[in-house]
Amino acid sequence: MNILVISNLFPPDAIGGYEILCSQVAAALAHRGHRVSVLTSEPPAATGSTHQALADANPSVRVRRELTLTAPFGGGVPRSRTWRRTVGRRNADVTRRVLEQDRPDVVFIWSQLRLTLGAAQASERAGLPVCYTMNDPHLAGYAPRKPTLSPRGLVGALLDRGPYRSDTARALALENVTCISDVVEEDLRRGGAPLPDPKIIHQGIPIERFPMKDDPGALRTPLRLLYAGQLLDYKGPDVLLRAAARLRGEGGRSVRVSMVGGGPMRAELEALASALSLEVDFVGAVEHGRMPQIYREHDVMAFTSTWREPFGLTHLEAMASGTPVVSTAVGGQAAFLRDGENALVVPPGDDARLAAALGTLIDSPPLARRLALGGRRTVEESFTLDRYVEDLERWLRNASLGRWN
Predict the structure, then answer these.
(1) Which of the given ranges, 68-72, 119-123, 147-151, 155-159, has the highest pLDDT on average?
(2) Which option is the CATH number for 2-204+385-400: 3.30.420.40, 3.40.50.2000, 3.90.1010.10, 3.30.457.10?
(3) Which of 45, 63, 37 has its CA nearest to residue 8?
(4) Three-state secondary structure of 11-42
(5) Whole-number Å distance between alpha carbons of 321 and 339
(6) Could you report the per-residue pLDDT of 354-382, keeping only the tens digit for each?
(7) Burial, 6: exposed, middle or buried (Cβ in 10 Å; 0-12, 13-18, 19+)?
(8) Distance set, CA 133 to CA 84, 122, 203, 390 (Å)
(9) CATH label, 207-382, candidates 3.50.50.60, 3.30.360.10, 3.40.50.2000, 3.30.420.10
(10) CA 201 – CA 70 distance, rounded (Å)
(11) Which of 353, 364, 296, 359 has its CA nearest to residue 329?
């Protein structure tokens, strides 16, 4: 197949795991013999990313950085409808030109956040099979405004169903859509995104990059506790610090915390760690290539998010590495977390329950080893990148042939 991938960002410009995964999928499809090109935003994307180009990037994947974002990531979103329409028309023009040059068999669209719908609309209007993967609920941001009792709210809703309809997701056919989890589909529908019949395809990781540690599940003193994610309130990093303080204060445990990731809460968390007299290493954002070593260097990964995560690539990476996971399960990670089998599941926002779960692991080395081995087995059996790409390849091929699977 001749596949054109369209995404708002593409490594080395990245703000999270999904842009990295997009690069991995593009490279894997090229390795499978497909002609793959990528159309993404022009530099600089201003993501503040520290990610470097991936080691396995296939040089045969051609990357064009010609699209325009409505605003750089890390800054405010412009409210001007005129500007968004200007960007949309510009992106549609660029896409039409690329489609004429490349003549792809299928267009594969990733995130359109801050990209506008111009590229997608141009692809659909060209009469090509267009496939969308929903890695988060961003498309709900393009749903028509809901009417409210205020005159302004009522007028806005009417405009989105009339002259401004082309600015909304209702202007897209969305015939071939996959969501990475049931949670993403539910959140999209709740947000008003017009999804006809999406297919659920769970993501996967390149398991060969995350070799299992020599002694999976082994715990040391002090316990090396890992937080990996952005330092944001809804990710619950403060919950982890309070749980660590409980471990030490109430249980007499020795614990050292590593917080890998950047974000606006760092100063607040540093102050909290000091007030709790905790040993905390604030590592900051790191290149993704360093993460396999980081997982293996730690005894337990705690995932404390309080919001509905789209999925859980970080979980899978830690599990593949033989590092036991203690996690909330309010989002897409619930699709593969099995309490007591491959992880310990705790309620969100409850530092006492998190501390108790960590204490249970410390007191039961056989449990820690069982979780580590169970986690690795979960990834091996169902959540590898090879399986994910194979599912996507079949889906893209069927779409290119006019079939739905």
Answers:
(1) 119-123
(2) 3.40.50.2000
(3) 45
(4) CCCCCCHHHHHHHHHHHHHHHCCCEEEEEEEC
(5) 18
(6) 999 999 999 999 999 999 999 999 999 99
(7) buried
(8) 22, 17, 11, 14
(9) 3.40.50.2000
(10) 29
(11) 353
User: Sign of the CA dihedral 366, 312, 44, 73?
Assistant: negative
Q: Does residue 275 register a pLDDT over 90?
A: yes
Amino acid 160: pLDDT: 60
Q: Please determine, for residue 69, whether its predicted confidence score (pLDDT) is greater than 70.
A: yes
The secondary element (H helix, E strand) that includes residue 374 is helix 365-382
pLDDT surpasses 80 at 56: no
Q: Phi/psi of residue 186, each to 5°? A: -60, -45
Question: For 75-109, how does the pLDDT look when each residue is reduced to its tens digit (9 = 90+)?
Answer: 777 667 788 889 999 999 999 999 999 999 999 99
Residue 17 tokens read as 């795991």
The pTM assigned to this predicted structure is: 0.90
Q: How far apart are CA 41 and CA 66, in angstroms?
A: 6
**Cα separation values, 346 from 145, 227, 329, 395, Å:** 36, 15, 7, 35
Phi and psi angles of residue 209, each rounded to the nearest 5 degrees, phi first: -80, -10
**In whole angstroms, how far apart are CA 24 and each of 66, 88, 117, 256?**
21, 27, 24, 33
Q: How far apart are CA 10 and CA 3, in angstroms?
A: 16
Per-residue pLDDT at 157:
66
Position 66 scores a pLDDT of 96
